[in-house]
Amino acid sequence: MADLETFRAETRSWLEAxxxxxxxxxxxxxxxxxxxxxxxxxxxxxxxxxxxxCVAKGYTVPAWxxxxxxxxxSAPEAKILREEMGRIxxxxxxxxxxxxxxxxxxxxxxxxxxxxxxxxxxxxxxIRWCQGYSEPGSGSDLVSxxxxxxxxxDHWEVNGQKxxxxxxxxxxxxxxxxxxxxxxxxxxxTFMLFDxxxxxxxxxxxxxxxxxxxxxxxxxxxxxxxxxxxxxxxxQVGEVNRxxxxxxxxxxxxxxxxxxxxxxxxxxxxxxAMLRQTGELDAVLRAELAMFDVDALAYGAMxxxxxxxxxxxxxxxxxxxxxxxVGTELNKRRHELMMSAGGSTSLEWDSEETGGGKPSRNWxxxxxxSIEGGTSEVMLNVVSKRILDLPGA
Length: 393
Ligand SMILES: Cc1cc2nc3c(=O)[nH]c(=O)nc-3n(C[C@H](O)[C@H](O)[C@H](O)COP(=O)(O)OP(=O)(O)OC[C@H]3O[C@@H](n4cnc5c(N)ncnc54)[C@H](O)[C@@H]3O)c2cc1C
Prior knowledge:
Helices cover about 45% and strands about 15% of the residues. By secondary structure, the protein is an alpha+beta fold. The chain has 3 domains: about 1-95, no CATH class; about 130-240, Butyryl-CoA Dehydrogenase, subunit A, domain 2; about 260-385, Up-down Bundle (Butyryl-CoA Dehydrogenase, subunit A, domain 3). It has a 4-stranded mixed beta sheet with strand order 1-4-5-8. The protein has a 4-stranded antiparallel beta sheet with strand order 2-3-7-6, with no helix packed on it. A hairpin with an 8-residue loop joins strand 6 and strand 7. It holds the Pfam family Acyl-CoA_dh_N.
């Protein structure tokens, strides 16, 4: 305990010295977050200074081992860092699918050489990754995916199409599910890594209801994926034809991330923020806010408990599905409330007062929360079957 108190004090003074004031503000839009990658630019000097300080300290991925670019923090230390960053409203220094999704899968299934290369690149924000799972006709029923990689000796020749590939047009590399055996549904998929600049890869942005275009259709036309990127660095993670195991493991981490259970926006101060925004609240809205606040706090407490259990190896493997369901439905409710509180102003699409329609665009974006990473209906199916053990589920 004394060690942890010392760690807390050291962390607090390190943050005081290294986190610029501009980085102690809530994230308001995409540009407030640094996503890294070959094409990335920093929004301002403060964002760069904060990112550089965190990379040097291993704080872009605090709980990863030092040899892979992390700080090697224990679970209680990582929790203290989260709390101390939350206390000063520090923005994440780096957001990336590499950190949330691919990294955990590599830590579990990667070869040592793969980990040394890719995890360090992720920690330093050098490569931006996208996720090639869904296909037209294969979303919830992901295992039916058809993108095919033909074995050509020293390389795979990949053909097919992915869809809903978030930020594919900004990404440098893709982690991609590729069928390598058409005769075996579950044990015929390989989890491959390849460069989005490979010849034959094309992306086409899809426009969302919010007016933004954060994801794409992704096409593969005779893409040559080398089987090895150097000694001990195969293109696939895990074994050839056993990518489904890797894919499922990664989905658990994706769902945990989308649920916001690891320190996401709890917003128990939502009522106060609305009061500032609107000046007054009617009785019905006040009651709805109070109910929301109670649920958000309960969810936060449940998230902490589940995280502790998972880090101690005692969590139920299906817990992220439950958290994803509750967290995303809660976030949708939160934005409904914000729209109600904001009145007709929040419906404005382009006005200066709303920062170019931020309330309505953000509200519409939340509609996707209960679809991305697995829909609410599918999460409930998993909970019925694997946690509640319901007959017939
Ligand atoms: C914002 C956003 C970002 C995304 N980013 C990515 C990405 O980066 N990479 C990627 O690969 N994919 C991505 N996706 C795709 C996402 O994973 C799929 O949309 C999701 O898995 C659902 O698949 P689907 O869209 O094909 O819907 P479908 O599977 O066709 O489902 C349609 C409806 O049927 C319901 N349904 C389906 N099966 C069942 C069942 N067994 N029981 C009950 N109801 C069922 C669903 O709940 C849903 O309401 C993203 C999606 C969104 C919205």
